[in-house]
């Protein structure tokens, strides 16, 4: 089962920002920590430790859900987990973004689909534009682990 990279974890933390006191996000949902929403009530306060714990638990669920969608290389997986963490898995699962990916859409078409998701509370948000830009770019980055996965070791012990 695939897990997000440290690159993705750092970007999610950067995009979400750490908020130790509950606040209403752009859609009016009570939120705390790094974008945690489950069971949050206005007035709640947490430590950085608990923000990290909530983030890890939330990401565990999203990783499992994205893994259920098929095989992705690490950059693709990172981009889709970031997207689903921000918008919810249901929105990813039912999106034209995922449909375009599964149909083998072009780089341009897939990037365009990412860029459609930049609204919060009915308003175009700069933070979401930056996030979708990163996700679209990350999706098409080469998988730094791929050369190790495909190397043919069959002739390693053969003598010349």
Explain what you see.
It is built from eight helices and four strands. The protein has 160 residues and is mainly α. Strand 1 (19-24) and strand 2 (30-33) form a beta hairpin. Helix 6 runs antiparallel to helix 7 (126-139). It is globular and about 45 Å long. The model has no long low-confidence stretch (mean pLDDT 91).
Question: What class do helices, strands and sheet pairing give?
Answer: mainly alpha
Strand adjacency order, main sheet: 1-2
- State the helicity in percent bands: 40-55%
Q: What is the tally of beta strands?
A: 4
Q: Report the uncertain regions.
A: none
Integer-rounded radius of gyration: 18 Å
**Overall spatial form:** globular
Q: What is the CA–CA distance across the termini?
A: 39 Å
Number of helices: 8
Identify the quaternary structure here: single chain
The average pLDDT is 91
Main beta-sheet strand count, sense and barrel state = 2 strands, antiparallel
């Amino acid at each position: 089962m695939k897990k997000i990279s440290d690159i993705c974890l750092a970007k999610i933390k950067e995009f979400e920002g750490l908020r130790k006191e509950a606040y209403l996000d752009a859609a009016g949902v009570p939120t705390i920590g790094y974008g945690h929403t489950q069971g949050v009530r206005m007035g709640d306060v947490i430590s950085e430790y608990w923000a990290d714990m909530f983030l890890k638990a939330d990401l565990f669920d999203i990783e499992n859900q994205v893994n259920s969608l098929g095989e992705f290389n690490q950059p693709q997986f990172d981009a889709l987990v970031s997207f689903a963490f921000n918008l919810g898995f249901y929105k990813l699962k039912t999106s034209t973004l995922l449909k375009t990916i599964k149909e083998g859409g072009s780089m341009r078409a897939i990037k365009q689909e990412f860029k459609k998701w930049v609204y919060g509370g009915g308003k175009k948000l700069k933070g979401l534009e930056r996030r979708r830009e990163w996700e679209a770019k990350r999706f098409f980055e080469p998988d730094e682990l791929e050369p190790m996965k495909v190397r043919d070791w069959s002739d390693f012990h053969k003598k010349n």
